[in-house]
Amino acid sequence: MQKKLILDTHLLNITVNRLCQQLIENHGDFSDTAIIGMQPRGIYLAEMIHRKLESDINRKIDLGYLDTTFYRDDFRRRDTPVKANTTKVPFIIEDRNVVLIDDVLYTGRSVRAALDAMIAFGRPQKVELLVLVNRKYTRHLPIEPDYVGKDVNTMDTQKVLVELEAQGFKDNKIWLINKESE
């Protein structure tokens, strides 16, 4: 297995700062906007973005976590039952803007499931998608992010591995892994 470093801690900090500035340009003081991190791994990026935004605009911003397990189109196709994660959306999203955050956009199926799951909390005015890594050329559904940390050209045989300090890793690093042929 070969690993190639895509983003190190320094570049990730620059990327998160840029994404936050783009969000502030489009959402101002976030009075009509909430942030929702997709379980399981999108919540760590959502928390990073949330902390930085609150610090930059000096205002509280609604943050939630959304689990899409039971909304996935492959839910019933698995041999073993999937364990659901926590959904925590302690606010109404009806007629509000929502920034949906995930670490990696791959096929688009998780985002489709998240859009379905969000309806349980109201009908948002607008939904935007922010991803740390946008895997190019792998989409199964016509879903594209509004905010991208890094576009990466990938093949189906490759994997993007996100290691964040908030997940227990020593440093923030994003890797592209090439699986060796068997």
From TrEMBL:
Highest taxon in the source lineage: Bacteria
Gene Ontology molecular function: glycosyltransferase activity
Record-linked InterPro entries: PRTase-like, PRTase_dom, PyrR_bifunctional
Signal peptide (from-to): none
Keyword terms of this UniProt record: Glycosyltransferase, Transferase
One Pfam family in the UniProt entry: Pribosyltran
Domain Phosphoribosyltransferase: 6-162
Name of the protein described by the UniProt record: Uracil phosphoribosyltransferase
Record organism: Fulvivirga imtechensis AK7
